Amino acid sequence: MINQIYNELLKFVKPLKAQEILSMITKHHRLQGSKGLWDSVKSIQEYLDSIGIESRIIRVESGAEKGHIVTPVSWDPIEASLEIKINDKLVARFDLENHPTLLSAHSPGGEGCSELRVCGEKLCDDRAILVTGYLYDIYLRSDADLIIYYTSSRYHDAVPYTGLFLKPGDKKKSVVMNIPYSLATRIISKTISGKKQKIQVCWKAKVRYHDLGLPVLISCNGSDPGIVFISHICHPKPGAHDNASGSTANILIAETLSKKETNYSYCNVWVPEYTGTVFLDKYLPWRPLAVINLDMIGSKQYITNSTLTLVNPPRFMYSEIPAVTWISMQKVFDSVKSFSNIAQPGIRYGISPYTMGSDHDVFIGWAIDSVMYNEWPSKYYHTDKDTPETIDPKSVAYTSISAILAAELYFKKRDKIEEYRKLYENYVKTWYRSQAIRNEFSLSYLSRYLIKKPLITKLEEPLIETPLLGRKIYKIIGREEYLKTIKISGAYTYLAVYAFMAEKIGSKEHIKHYKAELLIPMKKKEEKQLKKVWEIIKSNIKI
Q1: Lowest-pLDDT range, 15-29, 189-203, 282-296, 394-408?
Q2: Which pLDDT tens digit goes with each residue over 85-102?
Q3: Which CATH number applies to 2-71+218-430?
Q4: Residue ranges per domain, the chain?
Q5: What's the pLDDT score for residue 543?
Q6: Cα-only R_g, the chain
Q7: Three-state SS across 181-194?
Q8: Which residues lie closer than 8 Å to 218 by C-beta, 6 or more apart?
Q9: Topology agreement, domain 2-71+218-430 and domain 74-210
Q10: CA-closest candidate to residue 263, choices 37, 467, 455, 5
Q11: What pLDDT score was predicted for residue 461?
């Protein structure tokens, strides 16, 4: 039956259409709260209308609150430019048209010229400063007219994407612009050369704050509880891999399902990441049985250096959708043959323990069985070089087929689900042991603390309303503790979702379970620090 379903779906693989849709989305500057985000969502709705698929756009107001998440201010960048001179020689010029990530999302406007002071990792005072670190913290503490930001964690020759995610009513002060790490190091080297160097910057940023709010696009079929395919449509232009790719696959899924007979209900949803997703419980026609999140898929892996990953839910949750998704990924992507004619992977793909970072986190907090398709690492992630040329339309189309096949197996092979789930669990356990051996992670620790059986099964009510995003954690535990804590591997996922949920279900040693689940060789002082800040958080949110 799997072959029959798959062969039927192959009729709907249309790479050219994927390419056309990708181009349609990437032409918009889709920052949260922007008109460009609305334009991109409306273009998707118009496309769906043209092929006979009904949908509706939900407006979420700026500053709307849900749980621990507040939607950002509505904002549009109009124009921006930056010139940098060293000893009166122009060394760099950037503008918004050619570098859409130049201006940090939600940055205030302003203009001027000044000498540039290099701060690096330690904040300093001056009219224009060059700095790195946690941007929101820098913005709160700086009185500079211009903050020029750089980071070593993005592709060094690209302009990185950053966002302030200001709320309505937040103080508008410094203009925040981003430059490539390679340029920042060049400037820094001039200041430590021993010779007096004059570094001058001139900047201009024109922005508009308004009240458009955020759009959420929903298309649903069927009245019984079913499956949700979700992808976030936000992020700056071009934002091809993140996340025009997943949004394109979701459109292909909607179109394919509209043309074939299905015996289950489903919704296709396009959201601003997190800030739209948290409100879906009001607008979906039913509580989903399962969720498939499509975030960053279909790249030319030889360019992006990515691997397609199936991100599992936490092991304390009973889950079925990962098993059928893994089977579908193998069926679709084992597309080449070995010397002995055995099917082998045609792209790089694998599995991952639960990590947060996208819209599946919200549904997991609601105790809904959820997985994510995600390619990582992505060479040009969150930079102006994340262009459509790095995406393989054929891979995008096949990923959409993989997601549909997973849904088909989930609903049409209910009599086999437990068999599939046990098969996948055995595979995952073997994966854990092999990972532990090759990474010299203690097998005895793994055996003792890796959760063997789910601690919760299906629930009718959410365990947590929303994740705790970084901004909220920063405010709860304070600047000093936050900056110390985020350096610990895996700290964010633990504090934002894992510990939050585990505490709710009465898990007593959830930090040890977490270390085993993510195979994190955490030092004792790091574990002690996480325990300390979690107690602060727990007391604050009154669990």
Answers
A1: 189-203
A2: 999 999 999 999 999 999
A3: 3.40.630.10
A4: 2-71+218-430, 74-210, 468-541
A5: 84
A6: 24
A7: HHHHHHHHHHHCCC
A8: 55, 56, 57, 58, 267, 268, 269, 280, 283, 284
A9: no
A10: 5
A11: 87
Q: How far is CA 449 from CA 313, 318, 490, in A?
A: 17, 17, 17
Band of residue 276 on the pLDDT scale cut at 50, 70, 90: very high
pLDDT at 459: 81
Rounded distance, CA 312 to CA 440, Å? 23
User: In whole angstroms, what is the distance from residue 466 CA to residue 464 CA?
Assistant: 6
For 538, the token pair is 């727990």
DSSP character string of 495-541 = IIIIHHHHHHTT-SSHHHHHHHHTT----HHHHHHHHHHHHHHHHHH
Please check whether residue 292 is in contact with residue 405, taking contact to mean a CB–CB distance below 8 angstroms.
no
CA angle 203, 209, 210 (to 5 degrees): 160
Q: How far is CA 496 from CA 359, 471, 534, in A?
A: 13, 11, 10
Which runs of E-coded beta strand occur in 103-257? 110-120, 128-131, 146-149, 175-178, 199-210, 214-221, 227-232
- Closest of 210, 234, 204, 209 to residue 79, by C-alpha: 204
Q: What is the pLDDT of residues 389-407, one digit of tens each?
A: 999 999 999 999 999 999 9
Quote the CA–CA distance of 535 and 10 in Å, as a whole number.
Answer: 52
Q: What is the pTM of this model?
A: 0.97
Q: Do the strands 110-120 and 128-131 form a parallel or antiparallel pair, or are they unpaired?
A: parallel
Q: How much is the pLDDT for 253?
A: 98
CA-to-CA dists, residue 488 to 157, 498, 528, 537, angstroms = 27, 15, 11, 17
Angle at the Cα of 243 from the Cα atoms of 237 and 245, rounded to 5 degrees:
110
- Under CATH, to which class is 74-210 assigned? alpha beta
Instruction: Report residue 460's pLDDT band, with 50, 70 and 90 as the boundaries.
Output: confident
* Residue among 192, 71, 176 at smallest CA distance from 133: 176
Report the DSSP beta bridge partners of residue 250: none
